[in-house]
Design brief:
Layout lengths: L4 H9 L10 E10 L2 E11 L4 E5 L6 H9 L6 E6 L2 E5 L2 E2 L7 E4 L11 H6 L7 H14 L15 H13 L5 E5 L7 H18 L2 E6 L2 H7 L2 E6 L2 E6 L1 H6 L4 H7 L2 E8 L3 E4 L2 E4 L6 E8 L3 E5 L12 E10 L4 E7 L6 E5 L10 E6 L4 E5 L7
Parallel strand pairs: 3-9, 3-10, 7-8, 8-9
Antiparallel strand pairs: 1-2, 1-4, 4-5, 5-6, 10-11, 12-15, 13-14, 15-21, 16-20, 17-18, 17-20, 18-19
Helix pairs in contact: 1-6, 5-6
The structure holds adenosine-5'-diphosphate and magnesium ion.
Adenosine-5'-diphosphate (ADP) binds next to helix 2.
Length: 377
């Protein structure tokens, strides 16, 4: 059996104790600061044991939402339910320490004057001292930090601090685990390993998890589902594949795919593109945008000389070529398009700048957005 590095480490370190996962329901959660709404009626259900990533640009309300779920802040309207019990809302306010919710802060927020083991044991105040120490030692063993029990946070690397913060959040066995951009402080190489380890630990404990990130790839990697958040609202939620295939807006499309954006007019539920007429059913008539996936465009050398043709596709010319390691990116001037199209080729390409080409576009790689789905971009 082939094991990943983290699985092997995990086998060596033993397993973390499982919790009783709980369903988390957000119902119309709203939070207003002064005049501005940080959250406007957020609805979301995270099933017991499910891992959902909250994805969106900064200022979107992600941290505010986690703070409200944890109980550090109160909603101005709406409710938070854990299983079917209201923990925040018009009828109830359960204090943070009694919600069974773990929160891992973006900056880890370790106590600098406490040793690693005391940081981890901090969340276990309700246990007898001997039990606290035993539980803290077990989780430190699990995250590979047994040798650092007595060290102080400032002497640890970024990855080690992240593990301590994770251990501290998870050791009380929260039914719901919240993580605010847990990997943003780590360098790229470390991020991969920590993502795998964290995912392993969350699966093992079966905690219902909400993980905040502003990296789409991280969200796809970690989440069973992704909730895209912008301007205090969830604009779309679903499995990564559904968000990729059927983005509800240009904003979501841009997160998950490299696209060429071309302005068009929708007339009578259809559009005319240089590549032909297409149905735009469901989109309102008027100005719109088509998103052509860079990977959906195929470019082949045009036949030149006496044997011109067969002339499938559109004619074009390579204007630029960039080698990007695993892929090559071309800028191609294409008949009928005002601006060059960007094209991503998985393999290398011998199409030099200036080469005349035929261009075909896979219709399934064309996304159509009416004005109502561009507005919130
Ligand atoms: P994110 O975590 O997605 O970056 P935040 O939840 O931190 O977003 O912030 C959402 C909005 O609420 C931002 O416009 C931010 O300026 C505002 N905000 C957050 N906390 C406060 C606060 N304590 N007082 C006033 N405005 C706040
Ligand atoms: Mg934030």
């Amino acid at each position: 059996m082939i094991q990943s590095q983290s699985e092997a480490q995990q086998a060596k370190r033993g397993r973390a104790a499982a919790t009783f996962a709980a369903r988390l329901t957000l119902d119309g959660v709203t939070r207003v600061y002064g005049e501005a709404a940080a959250l406007s009626g957020v609805d979301l259900t995270v099933e017991a044991g499910e891992i959902v990533c909250l994805l969106g640009p900064s200022g979107g309300g992600k941290t505010t939402l986690l703070r409200i779920i944890a109980g550090i802040e109160k909603p101005d309207a709406g409710r938070i339910l854990i299983n079917d019990a209201e923990v925040a809302g018009p009828h109830a306010f359960v204090p943070p320490e009694r919600r069974g919710v773990g929160l891992m802060f973006q900056d880890f927020a370790l106590f600098p004057h406490l040793s690693v083991i005391d940081n981890v044991a901090f969340g276990l105040k309700l246990l007898a001292p001997a039990d606290r120490t035993r539980a803290a030692r077990a989780i430190l063993e699990r995250v590979g930090l047994s040798d650092f029990s007595d060290a102080f946070p400032s002497t640890l690397s970024g990855g080690q601090q992240q593990r301590v913060a994770l251990a501290r959040a998870i050791v009380p066995r929260p039914a719901v685990m919240l993580m605010d951009e847990p990997f943003s402080g780590l360098d790229v190489q470390l991020r991969d390993t920590m993502q795998e380890e964290t995912l392993g630990l969350l699966r093992e404990t079966r905690a219902t998890s909400l993980i905040v990130t502003h990296h789409p790839e991280e969200a796809m990697r970690l989440g069973d589902r992704i909730a895209v958040m912008k301007g205090g609202r969830i604009v779309q939620a679903g499995k990564a594949e559904a968000l990729y295939r059927e983005p509800a807006s240009l904003f979501v499309a841009r997160l998950f795919s490299e696209i060429n954006e071309v302005p068009i007019r929708i007339v009578g539920g259809a559009i005319e593109t240089p590549a032909g007429r297409m149905s735009a059913a469901g989109a309102a008539d008027g100005p719109g945008v088509i998103g052509i996936r860079e990977r959906a465009i195929t470019v082949t050398r045009a036949n030149t000389g006496v044997n011109k043709g067969p002339a499938g596709g559109l004619s074009g010319r390579v204007l630029d070529r960039r080698f990007l390691g695993d892929m090559t990116r071309l800028d191609v001037g294409v008949e009928g398009f005002d601006r060059p199209l960007k094209v991503r080729l998985a393999k290398g390409s011998d199409l030099e700048r200036g080469t005349d080409v035929r261009v075909t576009i896979d219709p399934s790689g064309i996304l159509i957005f009416g004005s109502e789905n561009i507005a919130e971009s």
